[in-house]
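Quick one: examine the sequence and fold tokens given here and explain what the tokens say about the fold. Here goes:
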Amino acid sequence: MNTLNDLPFKNENELVRFVMQELGSIQTLKNEVLELRGELEALKKPNANPKAEKKSSLEQDFIEVRITNILQDLRIPASLKGYHYLREAIMMVYFDMNHLGMMTKHLYPSISKKFETTPSRVERAMRHAIECSYESQENRSSAIYRFTTSRPTVSEFIAAIADRLRLEDAINERR
């Protein structure tokens, strides 16, 4: 059995630092594997039916209108870049909730490519748009802000709206 003196570390702090670095590397690899697995599953989904694609396009347009109405109700000015980024992000999450777990790795980069900017600018613009909405006293009674004492994070905001739309759709399907 090896003792601390037998290992190539000068002291216990070096050993702890080494172990923490290795654990961080393992966690990073695990996250990358999980993300790749999600991307692989998305690629496996068949999209061969042109009628389904046409319906999907109409459905996307309808969802986009509903999202636009919600964002306008929340008093987010359409002149803000974050408004357009939020609308795109909410649509992406509405159609695939897995995007919520991949905000920095997938969602922000996807939006930044579409709008020809950087992921950090996308995230900052979304935060600013949410800030503007939250600062408005009229919005404090809105369902998005009702259950929180502080401004929601970008992911909380997107998840709340996408979830609201999904619930409304589920209720409408039952009728």
In short: The chain has a mean pLDDT of 80. The radius of gyration is 22 Å. The chain is about 70% helix and 0% strand.
